[in-house]
Amino acid sequence: MSNDAFVPHPDRLLPADPAVREIARSLYALEKDQPIISPHGHVDPRLLLDDEPWTDPTSLFITPDHYVNRLMHARGVDLADLGVGQGPLTESASRRAWSLLAEHWHAYAGTPSRYWMEHEFHEVFGLETVLSPRTAEAMYDEIAEKLTRPEFRPRALFEQFGIQVMATTDDPVDDLSPHDALAADASFAGRVIPTFRPDKYLEPAREDFGALVAALGEAAGVDTSSYDGHLEAMRIRRQYFRDHGAVSSDHAHIDPGTERLALEDARRLYGAALSGAISADEAVALRRHLLADQARLAAEDGLVMTIHPAVLRNHDTATFERFGPDVGFDIPVAVDFVHHIRPMLNDVGHHPGFRTVLFTIDETVFSREIAPLAGVYPSVYAGAPWWFIDSPDAILRYRRAVSETIGYSRTSGFIDDTRAFCSIPARHDMARRLDATHLAGLVAEHRMRLEDATELVSTLPTQQPREVFRLGDGGETA
Fold first, then answer.
1. Which DSSP string do the residues of 228-269 spell out, in sequence order?
2. What is the Cα–Cα distance from 294 to 233, expressed in whole angstroms?
3. How many distinct structural domains can be found in the chain?
4. What is the Cα 430 distance to its own chain's centre?
5. 248-251/304-307 β-pairing
6. Is there a single domain that holds both residue 109 and residue 183?
7. How many CA atoms lie within 13 A of 327 on its CB side?
8. Which residues is 249 bridged to in the sheet?
9. Mean predicted confidence (pLDDT) in 202-229
10. How confident is the model at residue 478 (pLDDT cuts 50, 70, 90)?
């Protein structure tokens, strides 16, 4: 076989021990073809509404994927040379970015980014070649040619990937017209649902906080010049999202604090924020109170509250000013769930309408904090590894860290959390293989019956996220 030839091994990520691998194969066979439920991600719904072909391989594989961009940038590549922040690329710019990926391809060895892209190259585009400076041009041409075919347009791939439900991430003031248009389009069989993401409207320290809450009030038809108006506007917009198919809200503050203020203090600090007279400490206190409000609203309207905290966004100021957010400069910080969400859980943690899914980038938090919380509060679920730890080894460590406390039923199901559309099936397939590996180990060690493992893999990929996110069996909102 040529050094340029490559086909992913059919047993990739399964155990090395032959006896355990055989068990894992049988388990994986039961889940590999189940439909994909993607309850949290960042794909633009207009991609599917417009159903326009991708213009080039770079705009599909490189430009939208900060996992890919950040490592090349760390190796000295300018993000502009990868198409970031450039809008539609010229043919020469696209080929230049692709050649840079090929030049640095060896640096991705052992990373999930390379694993996902090799899956995409082979499983989606039928390529059997290793990317390298020698093969880059031919691979680019082959992918580019296939992108012109009807079967490689977004809707066709959505169906090919077996996606039943895909959630997007949306601003509270969005009118959600792309979602409405997709729902009304009889030619599109999938379900694309919005997610309520109110972060910036809960951050009183922002210089544009006043303008933001004014826009929120305009969208809701409510005067938001007072704290009470802000709360009512949030209630109205959340219900608007609920009416348009949303099943969850998403929250990604620097910490998950939910301490409530006295009502008169909340009103006073809200007024100070609008006038620009709020201190840094007061802004934190008000933000935590406003997040606690979201929890109370979640208990009312039933939107599942997903919390992705403790990431310092846009760590490099110059990069943010040049390219904007979401280009790879989000860096984890320490998190404390136990104390920060205690006020929220004491307030609504036992309310039948409330449900929250907790995510972390600090692996120690899974066993020390999240699993114990999810193992006693009926409203709490352990979210899957994300961002820096949605990788094979970390996912296995997650399963081992939480399963002894909460099993599988108190976990979220896999969350792909991606902007890179073609990586969705690669990421979900990775998670399914790893679940089969973990369960096969338990069976081989006689810690679990094969019958129990078989039952679990028949429900984990599809039924588990449906139940956690309150989706009906066919993908409709429950």
1. HHHHHHHHHHHHHHHHTT--EEEE--SS---PPPPHHHHHHH
2. 12
3. 2
4. 15
5. parallel
6. no
7. 24
8. 196, 305
9. 98
10. very low
SS3 of residue 437 by DSSP: helix
Cα radius of gyration rounded to whole Å, the chain: 23
**Contact yes or no for 348/299 (Cβ under 8 A):** yes
β partners of residue 411: 382
CA dist 105 and 112 (Å) reads 13
Give the H or E element holding residue 271.
Answer: helix 263-275
Q: Is the pTM of the predicted complex or chain greater than 0.85?
A: yes
Residues 141 and 197 in one domain: no
Task: Could you list the beta-strand ranges (E) of 340-388.
Answer: 356-358, 380-382
In this structure, the answer to whether residues 463 and 319 fall within a common structural domain is yes
Question: Do 258 and 321 fall into the same domain?
Answer: yes
Q: How far apart are CA 380 and CA 355, in angstroms?
A: 6
Choose the final residue of a domain: 102, 130, 152.
152
Domain interval for residue 80:
53-152
Task: Give me the pLDDT at residue 195, please.
Answer: 98
DSSP 70-93: HHHHHTT--GGGGTTT--SPPHHH
